[in-house]
């Protein structure tokens, strides 16, 4: 087989597979594509083991999250991307092991942060309430 033949066959296979929009072992999902073991999700794409989520893409083991991309093992994320093992993040990117962060980027093992600045618990909730 020549390289050109291989590439032609590979591209053909890629086109065929991209047309498959299957969901496997899911329950009560709406408008989801290529999801596996997702429950009560809507408008998710290529997610695995996620529950009660909307508008996620390429996420794994998520719960009660929406509008997020490339996140894993997290809950209550909103408008976030590339965040992992975190809870209650809003508009965050590349955060790991974080809890209650708003508008943060690149944090590790932090809580109650807004724009990467730490606040006490009461201040955090007062400020974020006004922002939403």
Describe the structure.
The protein is of the alpha/beta class and 132 residues long. It has 2 domains: 48 residues, no CATH class; 56 residues, no CATH class. The protein is elongated and about 65 Å long. The model has no long low-confidence stretch (mean pLDDT 94).
List its traits.
132 residues, alpha/beta, 2 domains, two-stranded parallel sheet, 2 helices, 8 strands, 20% helix, 25% strand, elongated
What does the radius of gyration come to? Answer: 18 Å
Largest sheet: 6 strands, mixed
- Proportion of strand residues: 25-35%
Apparent shape: elongated
Mean pLDDT: 94
Q: Could you tell me the number of beta strands?
A: 8
Helix content: 10-25%
Total tally of structural domains: 2
Q: Which secondary-structure class do the elements indicate? A: alpha/beta
Cα separation of the termini = 59 Å
What is the tally of helical segments?
2
> What is the spatial order of strands in the main beta sheet?
2-4-5-6-7-8
Quaternary status:
single chain
Q: Uncertain segments of ≥5 residues (pLDDT<50)? A: none
H/E order of the elements? HEEEEEEEEH
Please outline what is shown here.
The protein has helices spanning 3-18, 121-131; strands at residues 54-57, 60-63, 66-69, 72-78, 87-90, 99-102, 111-114, 117-118.
């Amino acid at each position: 087989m020549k390289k050109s033949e291989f590439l032609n066959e590979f591209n053909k296979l890629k086109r065929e597979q991209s047309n498959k929009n299957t969901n496997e072992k899911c329950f009560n999902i709406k408008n989801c594509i290529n999801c596996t073991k997702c429950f009560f999700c809507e408008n998710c794409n290529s997610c695995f083991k996620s529950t009660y989520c909307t508008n996620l893409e390429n996420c794994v083991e998520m719960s009660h999250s929406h509008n997020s991309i490339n996140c894993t093992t997290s809950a209550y994320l909103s408008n976030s991307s590339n965040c992992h093992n975190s809870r209650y993040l809003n508009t965050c990117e590349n955060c790991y092991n974080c809890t209650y962060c708003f508008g943060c980027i690149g944090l590790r093992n932090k809580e109650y942060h807004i724009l990467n600045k730490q606040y006490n618990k009461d201040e955090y909730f007062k400020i974020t309430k006004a922002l939403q």
